[in-house]
Amino acid sequence: MEKLIYLYGIIPAEENDSSPLPSLKGLDGESEVYSIPFGEIEAVVCELDAAEYGEKELEKKTNDANWLHQKAFHHHEALMKLYEKYPIIPMKFGTIYSGAESLKNTIDSHKPNMIELLDGITDKEEWIMKIYCEADKVKDAVAGHNETIETKKEEIASMSPGRQYLEKRKLNQLIDQEAEKEKQTFSEKIHDELAALSVDNEVKKNWNKDVTGRVEEMCWNSVYLLEKSAVEDFISVIKKLQEKWTESGWQIEVTGPWPSYHFAKIS
Amino acid sequence: MSQRQEFENKEVGLIDILDVVLDKGVAIKGDLILSVAGIDLVYLDLRVLISSVETLIESNKKTAEKLSSKQFDYEKEELDRVIHQS
What we know:
The complex is a heterodimer of chains A (267) and B (86).
Chain A: E1 4-12, H1 13-18, E2 34-38, E3 41-48, H2 50-53, H3 55-62, H4 65-85, E4 89-90, E5 95-97, H5 100-121, E6 124-133, H6 135-145, H7 147-157, H8 161-195, E7 200-203, H9 209-212, E8 217-227, H10 231-245, E9 250-258
Antiparallel strand pairs in A: 1-3, 1-4, 1-5, 2-3, 6-8, 6-9, 7-8
Chain B: H1 4-7, H2 14-22, E1 32-33, H3 39-67, H4 69-85
C-alpha cells in the first residue's frame, strides 16, 4: 500500500540548495521529514502509514484532545524550524495526500501562485497582537470618567428613592455598555497605530475565557504583516503602549515572528 | 540589543496553537483534510486535560510534603510530647 504524504509547507528550491533541511522527525515520530522538488519550489513532507492515518483512523485520533495537542505542537515546531531557514508557505495542520501523484497534481496546479506568494513573503514577518483587559478596572474607569454616565448620575441624585433604585440598575447596564464601547475604541486606536506600520493586517476573533484560561478578558486579537525593516518600530510602539497602559488594566501582548499562517493565501 | 529579542519566539501557549496552527494556515485541498470541527470545544477538552494534570502534580507535591522526613520528625516530636505528658 502506498504511503500517505503529510505536507508541512512549501519552500523555494534555491534556498534549500544552499542550506539543507534541518533533520526532523515526521508526524508519527518515526519517519523523516524530507523535501520533494517541483522546479522552483519544494514541498516539505513526511510519509505516514496509510493503515494508521487513513480517514477513519484520523477521525478517531482527532477526537483525542491529547493527540491533537501533541500533533498540532509538532506541526508548529517543525514549521518554526523550517521558518528559521527558509521563507515558507505554511500548510494548515493535517494536510495529507494519498500519494506522490496526488501531491504532484495539487502542487502543479498552484505552482505559479505559490512562487508569487513566496516572493511576496520573503522580506516580511507575521506578528500577532492580543489585548487583554481587566474588566473591572475598565468598568471603574468608565464609571468615573464618562460624560454620559456623569450626567445620568446627577439626574438620579435628584429623584425619589423608589425611582433611584430602578434608575441605578439601568445605570449599571449603561456602564456595562459604555465599558464595552471603551474596550472597542481603545483597541481600535492601538490597532490603527500598528496597522499604519504594516503591509497588511487582519482583525481576528476574540476567544472567550474558557478557551484562553485567563482571568482577563480578550478584547482584541489581530495579526500584522510587516516588512522586516519595520519590525523594530512595531516593537517599540508596543513597548511604549505596554508601559503606558498596563497599570490601567490593559495587557498588550505580541507574539512572533510566525510563519505566514495568515497572509499566505492560495485561492 | 535589538528590542525584538525581548519578544520573539517566546514560548508558544495553547491559545497560540489554537489561534494560529489549528485555525489558520494555507488550505490547499489535500485528499484527507483533517477536519477539526469546533476547535473551541476541542480546546476546552484540552484545558480540562491540562488542568487535571496540573492538579495531579499539585496534589502529589502536597502528599510528598506530608511524607517528608521533616513532617515525620515533627509528628514524632508531637507524639513524644504526648507520651511524656501522660
